[in-house]
Input
Amino acid sequence: MIIVMKPGAPVEEREKIKEGLIKQGFQINEIVGTQMAVLGIIGDTSVLDINLLRVNDWVEKVMRVQEPFKRANRAFHPDASVINVAGVPIGGDKIQVIAGPCSVESREQIISVAQDVKAAGAHLLRGGAFKPRTSPYAFQGLKEEGLDLLKEAKAATGMPIVTEIMSADKIDRFVEDVDLIQVGARNMQNFELLKELGKINTPILLKRGLSATIEEWVMSAEYIMAGGNSNVILCERGIRTFETYTRNTLDLSAICAAKKMSHLPVVVDPSHAAGLWWMVEPLAKAAVAAGADGLIIEVHNDPENALCDGAQSLKPDRFAQLMKELKGIANIVGRDV
Ligand code: PEP
Ligand code: MN
Output
């Protein structure tokens, strides 16, 4: 981090700032010109509050050289991380596809969709049991019963399961039964939940918040990693923009940016990004072409009557077709599905 003092700043002010930083364990490299002085702060500056350093009236500007995240930072971990989700490696050469309904609705529904997506070549099964709905009157999920049904679907197909956690009091149950714990977009900055998830080892699928910058998203991954859980997978799921045609706007550039900033795998959710089933296929292909390590796609056997997100759900046969077509795109970018 670099602090530039204003022209003519008294030496005592500079000394005061230096003293405070030295007390915190930093080393200071000073460059004193005829008009201005610059302080280079050496140490782990991720703990420093940049705005606090700007409070001194004699400070012209403060700049970070190193990003405020350390554990998630590609600079300190040049190799891409591969996260093992119950034997399925996410982040390696193979693009892993997570598929299933938005919500678990019944035994028949989840088993049937699980068998269909498995036959089509999906690697993991998704299904919401605890649902974050905008309206309190909308279907809220089958909750614990939904987790039981996911377990049955896993037993029937052998597919590891992915489902969303909404509160820390359910962590023990999730650790027991869930292979990849999803943190939804609305909870990306639920810091107390992130801290608790940092204490376990189960992999976490961290969705990007509706209006979160890429750095804020990576900082949320840092929260989980700072607690000791380094099994974090990032998920781009579309962000809020001025556009209303689609539910959200898929930020393809976030795949490239997140992979440059961080060593963590990046999975893309074209279903929630578009909100329209017919856009899922081209967006999934675009995501793979842009370097995504995986996809999470909503599939429903009866989308017209789905209790949640039917409009963005693929029918099983369309999903099977997409899986075939994804292979070609993956091969072009030197990967496989
Ligand atoms: C979901 O995956 O069903 C979901 C609610 O996603 P998001 O948090 O991205 O809206
Ligand atoms: Mn959904």
In short: The pocket of manganese (II) ion (ligand 2) is lined by residues 102, 272, 298, 308-309 (CB under 6 Å). The chain has a mean pLDDT of 97.
